[in-house]
Design goal:
Elements: E1 11-13, E2 16-21, E3 26-33, E4 40-43, E5 45-50, E6 57-62, E7 71-78, E8 81-86, E9 92-104, E10 107-116, E11 125-127, H1 129-132, E12 136-138, H2 159-162, E13 169-173, H3 179-190, E14 194-198, E15 203-206, E16 213-216, E17 219-220, E18 226-229, H4 236-249, E19 252-253, H5 257-264, H6 266-275, E20 283-284, H7 292-299, E21 304-308, E22 317-320, H8 323-335, E23 340-344, E24 352-359, E25 362-370, E26 385-388, H9 393-405, E27 410-418, E28 421-428, H10 434-440, H11 444-456, E29 461-462
Parallel strand pairs: 1-12, 3-11, 4-10, 13-14, 13-18, 18-19
Antiparallel strand pairs: 2-3, 4-11, 5-6, 6-7, 7-29, 8-9, 9-10, 15-16, 16-17, 20-23, 21-22, 21-23, 24-25, 24-27, 25-26, 27-28
Helix pairs in contact: 4-5
Organism: Roseovarius bejariae
Protein name: Probable alpha-L-glutamate ligase
Pfam family, one: RimK
Length: 475
Amino acid sequence: MSDTVPPAEPLQFGWEEWISLPDLGVPALRAKVDTGARTSALHAFDIETFGPSSKPKVRFTVHPIPGRDDLVIPCSAPIIDRREVASSNGEKELRYVIESTLSVNGDAWPIEITLTNRSSMTSRMLLGRQALKDHISIQATDRFLQPELSYDVYHTTRMREVQPNRALRIAVLSREDNYSTRRLVEEGEKRGHSVEVINTTRCYMAINAMAPEVHYDGKRLPRFDAIIPRIGASITPYGTAIIRQFETIGTYCVNGSDGISASRDKLYAHQIMARAKIGMPNTAFAASPKDTGNLIGLVGTAPLIVKLLESTQGKGVVLAETKKAAESVIDAFRGLKANFLVQDFVKEAAGEDIRCLVIGGKVVASMKRTGADGDFRSNLHRGGSAKSVRINKEERETAIRAAKAFNLNMAGVDLLRSEAGPKVLEVNSSPGFEGIENSTGKNIVGKLYDQIESRVRPAPVRRRKTAPAKAKSKQ
């Protein structure tokens, strides 16, 4: 909440006034003044709690303009109480209570607000005695004694500027308790968000046209602001099906299901990169054992790389230093009925590659990885080492183009430095953070949250294309 100072002199209020709630991103709201009510009440929809039980929060949506349910402002705030409130017709309701800043004509002070559905009321908000105490002089026969505001503000680009940094509810789809998962939780909670780790394989789906849902441990999962997929290669088909379900619901997913699926299919991934004219080692694929000689000829001369399509972290990747060795490896893979690629070996890379971390269309960090002694593979999981490296313009542009080709908001792009320019080896849709954060000293996960926040904290949402005419400022 912003610093607030109550007015030195009592303000003159009529029975209805224009107010602002800047902490909630509501710059213009008409409120009814009711000295018979103790606590103020705000018209709120989709009220849902989240966060730890020791510091619970509530999120909700506000429709600030009467009759304009297509205009939606998402809000969140810490819960300060839960209180039984009697409405004007005598019905009692248990409501969440939050604290927010009330702003009127340049003066501002904190007030308590209960959240409730006021769809049957003509006013979006009611101001009770607690909000008026010591600050307001009431003229019960007048209205709009303070400067009038306009609903027009909701139809301008300025709305993005007035939106507060509301807390988000984020799910990390992961089966592992590793550095990357822990950092995602740690960084998100440090920013005030609620971050939950969801085991992907324990999710299941209700697939229907009107109300698609994702369930987990016997319950429907709540509405998340964003999903961060950390889908292991072994569960790619099921994991991407879960992400598709979240996409159907309308949840923002850092990486989409199509991009993850394409990046995991090494053959399709190389075809995508070829179509996008992204530099990569000469690559060939064939199914018939009769084509082994021609397959090798398409790539070039030995040494060659023979790579299983399902390989991860350097497993299933073999260096064949002679043509005969390449034929033997290919025959062995075919004997196992395994699908594989054959690639040219870039000698000048000398067992080193560069991992570029792309987030939101920008390279936020890069590191050089060097293989362990005697190993041409530079994977850190296989004993390789890493250090920060400065990349040139061509390498940066290549990494960005590669991530864009797969429509990935976050990607680890691995490339080799060759005499002909950068060659992309792989685009990883679930890159680890430990090696690159340790080698570069950068807060990479923070960069990811910057991107998430910029995507899910937009200006008010309009739910339909055709909306009724704007409401007049006076009614």
